[in-house]
Design goal:
This protein is of the alpha/beta class. It has a domain at 91-108 and 232-460: Rossmann fold (3-Layer(aba) Sandwich). It has helices spanning 16-22, 43-46, 51-62, 68-78, 112-116, 119-129, 145-154, 173-180, 196-207, 210-218, 231-250, 270-281, 297-304, 329-336, 341-354, 361-364, 377-391, 397-413, 431-439, 447-458, 464-467, 485-492, and strands at residues 5-7, 13-14, 31-33, 91-93, 98-102, 135-141, 160-167, 187-192, 221-224, 260-265, 285-292, 306-308, 356-358, 370-374, 419-423, 478-480. The strands form four sheets. Strands 4-5-15-10-11-14 form a six-stranded mixed β-sheet, sandwiched between helices. Strands 9-6-7-8-16 form a five-stranded parallel β-sheet, sandwiched between helices. Strand 4 and strand 5 form a beta hairpin.
């Protein structure tokens, strides 16, 4: 059955390829499938498949106007030798009921590679299908990882340009070095003097600025998005949760049909939403455990039903989660509101005008699949140290937030069913914080000296993605205020 896509704030329906191409609906809403497809293939059969085959079975249920040949071609190009392990998304077991799903073996050593390796191919295929002749301009705000993964995915892809905005003082040194050394004649990286929410808000405004849209269209360009607001980012993420589950079946760790918990370190809510979509498809999932850092807006939301961004923005050691406006939560709230765009729009307007909204009490029962909690900076460091001491396994700061919250969940509920923790970044992206946690002291050496020491401590070779930037020259050094972002885009596109 064909799946069409609705805007969370309107009634117009578009095809999957049109939703991928547009990124964001013209009315400011996010595209959602008009129904969630069933995973109508047995888990036992899926357990005998490769990652690429599982990805096709999942994605083909959502992207119904892509032909089998088109979609398989996109998958083949995405999940190839750029991943540094034979298994695209391996599981690492610690105790008898916990597995870390390592999503960081791609070109930029973060989970964003899992979707951003395929998005350029989905997007250029969509452009051909819809007879688009303009250059596609990927406009993206990043809290650290999306930027580099998107840049790597779109670098030198014909018919595209990519402009990435990041908080100049809100990412790790390695994250910044990865972005500002990016090669590619079509790549542009711009630091801003604000935080991620400032960048994300400005990008959304540009998508909804009709005058700006007309100006760039006259110059032969049109905007699309590589952020997790693009449904072409979300759908590939569903696949790795299905793959993780059937991998546990294949390894004899669970029986088909046995329920598991999934734990996700959460900022913009896209990664855990993908796990929710997998559950809605029929994957046997009990609880979705939403882990926050000290920017605990989502913890407060799941505890009280109130989403309130009116709070201090905290810079933490897990910067990809330093977010107060979780854009993908809108997709969940739309569902909670009975897929009613008017009801959703009222809440989103309140968030814009008042900085908060509350779900009615009767709607909060719709959130029962989720458990939310958070870790302080001290708890995050303690979790890194404890897992290293107990298992000799090194995790990054974001994964540590998830593992720490999972420990709290287990203590509170005594629910020790099998659990998969999404491990979203290599510890090499956050070497300073990781080593400080393991060794119990602040590190003073330069970042690359610390990288070599972490390799010695962990016994894991330095990833190719890190070695490549060790001596790479800085190619992007532009820094602007959030207010100047539209002017900067026009300048880059030659429209100023």
């Amino acid at each position: 059955m064909e799946i069409l896509y609705n805007s969370t704030r309107g009634t117009e329906k578009v095809t999957a390829s049109q939703a991928v191409l547009m990124g964001l609906s013209p009315d400011g809403g996010l595209f959602v499938p008009d129904h969630i497809p069933a995973l109508d293939i047995s888990l036992e059969e899926l357990s005998r498949m490769t990652y690429q085959q599982v990805a096709y079975e999942v994605m083909s249920r959502y992207l119904t106007d892509y032909t089998e040949e088109e979609l398989k071609n996109c998958i083949e190009k995405a999940y190839d030798a750029k991943f540094d392990t034979g298994v695209i998304a391996p599981l690492h077991q610690t105790d008898d009921h916990t597995w870390f799903l390592e999503l960081f073996h791609g070109a930029t050593i973060a989970f964003k590679d899992m979707a951003l390796s395929i998005l350029p191919h989905l997007l250029t295929t969509a452009a051909r299908k819809n007879n688009v002749t303009n250059d596609i301009v990927i406009l993206t705000a990043t809290s650290g990882d999306t930027g580099k993964a998107a840049l790597a995915g779109f670098a030198d892809v014909p018919g595209t340009k990519i402009i990435v905005f990041y908080p100049k003082y809100g990412v790790s040194a390695i994250q910044e070095k990865q972005m500002v050394t990016q090669k590619g004649d079509n790549t542009y990286v711009v630091g801003i003097t604000g935080n991620f929410d400032d960048a994300q808000t400005a990008v959304k405004k540009m998508f909804n600025d009709r005058d700006l849209e007309n100006t760039i269209r006259k110059a032969g360009h049109q905007f699309s998005s590589a952020n997790s607001i693009n449904i072409g980012r979300l759908v590939p993420q569903v696949a790795y949760y299905v793959y993780a589950y059937v991998s546990l079946i294949r390894e004899g760790k669970i029986q088909a049909g046995e329920k598991i918990n999934i734990v996700v370190p959460t900022g913009n809510f896209g990664n855990i939403l993908a796990a929710f979509y997998a559950k809605l498809m029929g994957l046997p999932v009990a609880r979705l455990i939403c882990a926050s850092n000290e920017n605990k807006v989502l913890f407060d939301f799941f505890r009280t039903g109130m989403y309130d961004r009116r709070r201090e923005f905290v810079l933490t050691s897990s910067p990809s989660m330093d977010i107060l406006i979780s854009s993908n939560l809108e997709r969940l709230i739309y569902r909670v509101c009975g897929n009613d765009p008017q009801a959703l729009s009222v809440l989103m307007k309140k968030l814009t005008s008042e900085g908060m909204y509350s779900l009615p009490e009767e709607k909060r029962v719709e959130l029962s699949d989720f458990y939310g909690n958070y870790c302080s900076e001290e708890e995050t460091a303690g979790t890194i140290r404890r897992i290293y001491d107990s298992y000799g396994y090194v995790i990054d700061t974001h994964t540590a937030v998830a593992a720490g919250v999972y420990e709290k969940y287990c203590r509170e509920t005594e629910d020790l069913r099998p659990a998969v923790i999404a491990s979203t970044a290599s510890p090499y992206k956050f070497t300073r914080s990781v080593l400080a946690a393991i060794e119990g002291r602040e590190e003073e050496e330069d970042d690359f000296t610390l990288i070599d020491r972490l390799s010695s401590v962990s016994g894991v070779p330095v990833p190719r993605a890190v070695e490549e930037i060790r001596t790479a020259p800085v190619l992007h050094d532009r820094v602007v205020s959030p207010e100047d972002m539209p002017k900067t885009v026009l300048s880059i596109l030659g429209c100023a």
